[in-house]
Write a structure and sequence with these properties.
The structure holds 3 protein chains of 3 kinds.
Chain A: H1 21-26, E1 35-43, E2 47-52, E3 66-70, E4 74-87, H2 90-94, H3 103-108, E5 113-126, H4 132-135, E6 136-137, E7 148-151, H5 154-161, E8 170-176, E9 184-187, H6 188-193, E10 196-199, H7 206-219, E11 224-229, E12 237-239, E13 247-249, H8 251-254, E14 259-263, E15 274-275, E16 278-279, H9 285-295, H10 299-312, H11 316-322, H12 325-332, H13 336-352, E17 357-358, H14 367-376, E18 380-384, H15 391-418, E19 429-434, H16 437-440, H17 449-456, E20 462-468, H18 476-481, E21 484-487, H19 493-500, H20 506-514, E22 521-526, E23 533-537, H21 542-547, H22 553-568
Parallel strand pairs in A: 10-20, 10-21, 11-18, 11-19, 14-15, 14-18, 16-17, 19-20
Antiparallel strand pairs in A: 1-2, 1-7, 2-5, 3-4, 3-7, 4-5, 5-6, 8-9, 8-23, 12-13, 21-22, 22-23
Chain B: E1 6-10, H1 32-46, E2 53-56, H2 68-84, E3 87-89, H3 107-111, E4 117-119, E5 126-130, E6 133-140, H4 145-149, H5 159-188, E7 194-198, E8 201-202, E9 221-222, H6 224-227, E10 234-237, E11 244-245, E12 257-259, E13 276-283, E14 286-293, E15 299-305, H7 311-321, H8 323-326, E16 330-337, H9 346-352, E17 358-366, H10 384-393, H11 402-419
Helix pairs in contact in B: 1-2, 10-11
Chain C: E1 6-13, E2 17-22, E3 34-37, E4 44-56, H1 72-76, H2 80-83, E5 84-97, E6 100-102, E7 115-118, H3 121-128, H4 134-137, H5 145-160, H6 164-176, H7 181-192
Antiparallel strand pairs in C: 1-2, 1-7, 2-5, 3-4, 3-7, 4-5, 5-6
Chain lengths: 569, 420, 212
């Protein structure tokens, strides 16, 4: 509770008068640029206190909304992190409340009883600097007392986030809170440079957001995607309860010439380009390690697979299925129970994955080189799991494929580093995984391919797009390496904590995060954006598809007809 | 009513005009290899007697400028076949001049309006009448990159971007044809079968012995999912010389996606490849097919470890052992000798090779330490143990230690493998 | 427009307050109303009536009860008014002239014997354009603060003819009275009630035998 000195000199004009009456009259309540009040308190470490003008309707403010404090030299771009009702006179709140609309109510409103907004400045813009890029500075100071704070205008948003016209990589991801039709853009080139995360509890629109970003990457050529599509959401079609038929377009339908679908489960309802069959010999002990929780193995048992690989060589998996457990355990001086458990679980693994995990001699086509060649040529590839959508399938396949792809990418990158003229750098590869914490939890992330990719960053031009609802279960080091994070609503305190760890101003962002809508809103922050922003993400619909290069079939045919004339006659 | 299947003869790359490893034949006016190719073609065309449609999806000639004699030979055959059965030809990359306005080497048939011979230059669905009714042909002839580069929107694009554009245009051309087929069927009946003919690489195709080098040049690859469109009942491909299905060994998938491969061997890389044409029975919804072998000219590489004491005799005896295979074959001989040993006289080796159709090379490969890695047998495909065996095979001085060395190496290699 | 009636003249003054004797017995301005004292310097002083009283002219005399029925007193003791006088106190809230008014303490106290008038509507508006006039009113010891504020604000409100200023004054008062919420609450509850529901002020009436 702030103390109040009744005898302090009254300012020449009340805050609301700082704008001329005419300006105020021009701006309807809640509109962009509207003056909100003045800074009355603040610190660099804790943020700014904005006392709202009595005329400002509290209910038009939102946590996560943009506000700009116009200092003497800089505009301080801030997020509203909290809102507070406060009383200079506690008795006014304790006494029976005056009737609504009464004189007393009017007298008290805005002064004796007023509202404060807590702001967290995230960016300073030097007004004197003509170069828009150079003008953006990290916050190293704060504006003074009675600095007027206003709602951000479209120009403000534009100044900070740029526009799609600014560079070929600027991608419109949504609108700021309470500012419809003003695009917030994200630099996809910077985005694809690092591993990134999309988080949110289930039902918050993670999948839509992921589709959005994938479309961006495809449309803007910012990287080539490999998508492990656990639930069939990205390839040919995906689910959308809000649309007729409950389905929406996948990447393959949007970009028929640039996306291919490889499936583990060929079925007539899905358009796919290739089937994936994995020979036993592709399995490595590290895959078993990744799966240990899913198939219920102790780490001792799981580690026995290294021993078996040493013993049997390349075909260890096939031979383990046939081995005499007792004999092997004795000869290898291993715990027989653990060995038996491993043998049993591998049997189960083989059974559950028998749709696509085949003995070597049955596999006629190794699809992985095709995936690789696709990716090298810039063809985005979706791995479709069909009915094999259990974690056991997902983790196994993602691990095996990614390990091999990563090997190749490393090799090609090394070749490029040693002789850049002869060997072009492999294109930037973005690997999307869902349920990412299952790959990246502590104890597993250290030993598996995904952990390595996440940690080694962009050296080999391979990055991850991790999609998850339990970020707290992802290894901390991995989480801290994520460049840009999209956070939809998260309920669990530990998840919020984990996502924001290491972010400056995380205190303020926490309340912002907690106040997100359950759908279509996300707090976005990190490498690819100059400052954190809450966006109402773009709708994944016809309108959007059109802007990211989708041509409806009739137009596509018309174009093809036109091209036939131009190219072949 | 079950409609009769359309019997289709699908001929791969014909490549008339290849003279490599052949002798001139003044009487005929073209070399012996050209004769080989023509014979292969004739064998293929014998099958045409019992089919309803003959398809040539490109690369009739070695280049877009075939000599008139070769042209005459092909033209006369096409004409003859055309009297019995419709023939469809699309230009391949070897047929199309880079300047598009110039005629391709197969255009002439079109211009002459040979009965029943259809040369399809643009990707537009064309109904062809056969004795069992119409069949729709969706042609995807080769398009030179220069054509694409002439477009306004290709200006200033990087090579990968141009390739991307190219693939995108081709995919859309195929999709458009699939759509047109759908429309045609709505108007004329759902049972009309359709065939996609394309002169392109489908992703996942293996290049085989010939054309491996082509991998170095950026190649457009079309996705399997694009050509394996249910609108088509058969996908007749050419361009890759190795006979194969896509995906490999897929003998029942629908529609079948098939490269018959070239009708003759062009180079030693194809030594072990069978040469075939494909006979397919196409109906709407289901196509069965078989490969018919063509008995191409044999190619044979002899690798001989010459004996140090009497190299010539050792080489001759090895050749003698292969006598039956050498008859009528294009042969090359690589022999190894330890450093310092003099070359055996080549003339004598030639004599020993008598009966060969053509001797492509007789070459000594010196066994020098730095040359080992270039040894033909040593490739990265080999496992370490196999590589060791292969290496020891080429090292006569280590023969005595061979068994022991391998025994010693085994545990070492296994240990390393397990550590990785 | 007729000359405004003289209410009385200053009989005592200091920087904060004026003591005024009415020219007519019982004819004091209403409690809480605004008055103007015209000074020879040309600067008028303005005040708010904070206390009105009537008593004997001679300070040594004691007024005693006569125990007479109404009407009888006037008949039997007609000289009585000449022995009595009505005075009132006004808290100085500002000064000014025809060009404008400020709510501040004047540099010099008003001269004695200056005439005092009811402040004109325009003058009240000038004084109350900012809420500063309220501050001296809250600093009068022993004054019935709530009543005074209600009266003064009512007068000011009538001068403006709208309630718009009232909210502004209220916000200022809320700060002045931040330790006395009850008074603030009382003032604005009373100001919020329709005027008709309150008993009217007693209009000052001429006393018998008094000449104008």
């Amino acid at each position: 509770m702030s103390s109040f000195d009744p005898f302090e000199e009254i300012p020449a004009a009340s805050p609301g008068d700082l704008l001329s009456p005419q300006t105020q009259a021009d701006l309807p309540v809640g509109s962009a640029g509207e003056s909100l009040g003045v800074i009355v308190r603040g610190s660099l470490s804790k943020g700014l206190d904005l006392k709202l003008d009595p005329g400002v309707s509290l209910e038009t403010l939102r946590a996560g909304m943009f506000a700009v404090a116009g200092g003497e030299m800089f505009d301080f771009f801030s997020l509203v992190t909290d809102l507070e009702l406060t009383a200079t006179n506690p008795e006014a709140v304790d006494a029976p409340p005056p009737a609504p609309g009464s004189l007393l109510r009017q007298v008290l409103a805005g002064d004796s009883l007023y509202t404060r907004a807590m702001l967290r400045p995230h960016l300073m813009v030097n007004r004197a600097e003509p170069d828009a890029k150079k003008a953006l500075l990290p916050v190293k100071t704060i504006p003074g007392h009675f600095t007027v704070v206003r709602r951000a205008t479209p120009e403000d948003v534009n100044r900070v986030f740029g526009s799609e016209e600014q560079s070929p990589y600027h991608f419109h991801i949504g609108e700021p809170l309470e500012m419809d039709e003003i695009p917030v853009c994200l630099n996809l080139e910077a985005f694809a440079e690092r591993s990134n995360g999309i988080f949110g509890k289930s039902g918050t629109g993670k999948t839509f957001l992921t589709r959005l970003m994938l479309c961006g990457l495809v449309h803007k050529n910012a990287g080539v995607n490999l998508i492990f599509d656990m639930h069939g959401e990205y390839g040919w079609r995906g689910t959308d309860e809000g649309r007729p038929g409950g389905s929406t377009k996948g990447l393959r339908e949007l970009y028929p010439d640039r996306v291919q679908v490889f499936t583990l489960d060929p079925r007539p309802t899905v358009k796919y380009d290739r089937e994936i069959r994995i020979p036993y010999s592709f399995l490595e002990p590290e895959d078993i390690l990744s799966l240990q929780k899913v198939i219920g193995l102790t780490s001792t048992s799981a580690e026995n697979s290294y021993l078996l690989q040493r013993r049997f060589g390349r075909h260890w998996f096939a031979r383990t299925l046939d081995m005499d457990t007792k004999e092997v355990a004795e000869e290898e001086d291993a715990h027989q129970g653990a060995m038996q458990a491993l043998r049993r679980k591998l049997g189960r693994l083989q059974k559950e994955c028998s749709g696509f995990l085949w003995p070597d001699e049955r596999v006629v086509e190794d699809a992985i080189p095709l995936v690789l060649r696709n990716l090298e040529q810039g063809i985005h590839t979706v791995i479709d799991f069909g009915r094999y959508s259990q974690l056991i399938h997902y983790i196994l396949v993602a691990n095996i494929l990614t390990r091999r792809i990563d090997e190749q990418w490393r090799e090609k990158s090394e070749q490029h580093f040693s002789d850049p003229d002869r060997h072009p750098r492999p294109p930037r590869l973005v690997i999307t995984i869902e349920e990412a914490h299952k790959f990246l939890e502590p104890g597993i992330a250290e030993q598996t391919i995904f952990g390595r990719i996440a940690r080694e960053l962009r050296k080999y031009n391979v990055t991850l797009l991790v999609v998850d609802q339990r970020p707290s279960q992802i290894q901390k080091e991995v989480l801290s390496q994520l460049g840009t994070k999209f956070c939809c609503l998260l309920d669990d305190e530990s998840d919020v904590e984990a996502v924001l760890a290491g972010t400056s101003g995380s205190g303020g962002l926490r309340s912002v995060l907690a106040s997100l809508d359950t759908r279509q809103q996300a707090l976005v922050f990190g490498h690819a954006l100059p400052m954190p922003v809450v966006v109402k993400t773009r709708s994944y619909d016809e309108q959007f598809w059109k802007t990211v290069g989708y041509l409806p079939p009739e137009e596509r045919s018309a174009r093809a007809r036109e091209d036939r004339k131009r190219l072949w006659d | 009513m079950m409609s009769n299947p359309i019997r289709v003869l699908h001929v791969g790359d014909v490549h008339l005009g290849v003279e490599l490893y052949g002798r001139p034949d003044a009487e005929k006016g073209y070399g012996t290899r050209v004769s080989d190719f023509l014979q292969a073609l004739d064998r293929a065309l014998e099958l045409a007697e019992d089919v309803d449609l003959v398809l040539f999806p490109g690369d009739i000639y070695k280049n877009c400028d075939p000599n008139p004699t070769v042209q005459r030979e092909f033209a006369s055959r096409i004409r003859r076949i055309g009297r019995q059965v419709p023939v469809v030809v699309i230009p391949g990359n070897h047929d199309v001049p880079n300047a598009f306005a110039r005629a391709s080497s197969v255009d002439i048939f079109h211009v002459l309006e040979l009965d029943n011979v259809h040369v399809l230059r643009r990707p537009e669905v064309t109904p062809v009448r056969t004795r069992w009714g119409e069949v729709l042909i969706a042609p995807l002839p080769f398009m030179p990159r220069s054509r694409l580069l002439s477009l306004e929107e290709a200006r200033g694009k990087s090579l990968p971007e141009v390739l991307e554009m190219m693939r995108s245009r081709l995919v859309e051309a195929v999709n458009l044809m699939a759509e047109e087929i759908g429309e045609y069927r709505q108007a004329h009946g759902e049972r009309v079968p359709a065939i996609l003919m394309a002169h392109y690489t489908i992703s996942g195709a293996t290049f085989g012995g010939y054309g491996k080098g082509a991998l170095l040049a950026p190649e457009i690859e079309l996705p399997l999912g694009t050509v394996r469109n249910p609108a088509f009942d058969y996908v007749a491909l050419a361009h890759i010389h190795k006979h194969q299905t896509i995906p490999p060994n897929d003998f029942t998938g629908q529609p079948p996606v098939i490269y018959p491969g070239s009708i003759e061997r062009v180079d030693f890389g194809e030594e072990d490849e069978d040469k075939v044409v494909v006979l397919a029975e196409v109906t709407r919804g289901h196509t069965s097919w078989k490969a018919v072998p063509l008995h191409p000219r044999k190619f044979l590489t002899l690798r001989i470890e010459a004996d140090e004491v009497d190299p010539l005799e050792s080489i001759k005896s090895k050749i003698e052992a292969k006598k039956s295979q050498i008859q009528g074959a294009v042969v090359r001989v690589f022999y190894t000798l330890p450093p310092g040993a003099p070359n055996p006289p080549e003339r004598e080796i030639r004599q020993a090779l008598e009966g060969a159709h053509y001797i492509a090379a007789i070459r000594r490969e010196n066994v020098r330490p730095e040359a080992r890695s270039r040894h033909g047998g040593l490739t990265t495909q080999l496992g370490p143990l196999e590589a060791l065996e292969e290496y020891l095979r080429t090292q006569p001085q280590l023969q005595d230690l061979r068994e022991e060395l391998i025994e010693r190496a085994k545990p070492l290699i296994e240990e390393i493998a397990s550590r990785e | 427009m007729s000359e405004p009636a003289v209410l009385g003249e200053i009989v005592g003054s200091d920087s904060q307050g004026l003591e005024i004797e009415c020219h007519r017995l019982y004819c004091a301005p209403a409690f809480g109303s605004f008055i103007r004292a015209d000074c020879p310097s040309g600067i008028s002083q303005f005040g708010v009536v904070t206390c009105v009283r009537t008593g004997p002219v001679d300070g040594n005399r004691i007024v005693q009860a006569h125990r007479m029925a109404p009407g009888e007193l006037e008949q039997r003791k007609p000289h009585l008014p000449s022995l009595l006088r009505t005075t009132f106190t006004a808290r100085v809230v500002g000064y000014g002239n025809d060009h404008g008014q400020v709510a501040a303490t004047p540099a010099h106290p008003a001269r004695l014997h200056c005439f005092v008038y009811a402040a004109a509507t325009a003058e009240i508006r000038g004084l109350t354009a900012t809420p500063g006039f309220l501050r001296p009113l809250t600093q009068i010891p022993d004054a019935p603060l709530e009543d005074l504020l209600v009266a003064a604000l009512q007068a000011a409100r009538e001068a403006w003819g709208t309630d718009e200023k009232l909210i502004q004054w209220g916000k200022y008062l809320a700060r002045l009275l931040h330790r006395d919420y009850v008074t603030l609450e009382g003032v604005f509850q009373r100001l919020g009630q329709p005027v008709s529901s309150q008993p009217g002020w007693e209009a000052p009436a001429a006393f018998f035998g008094q000449t104008s």
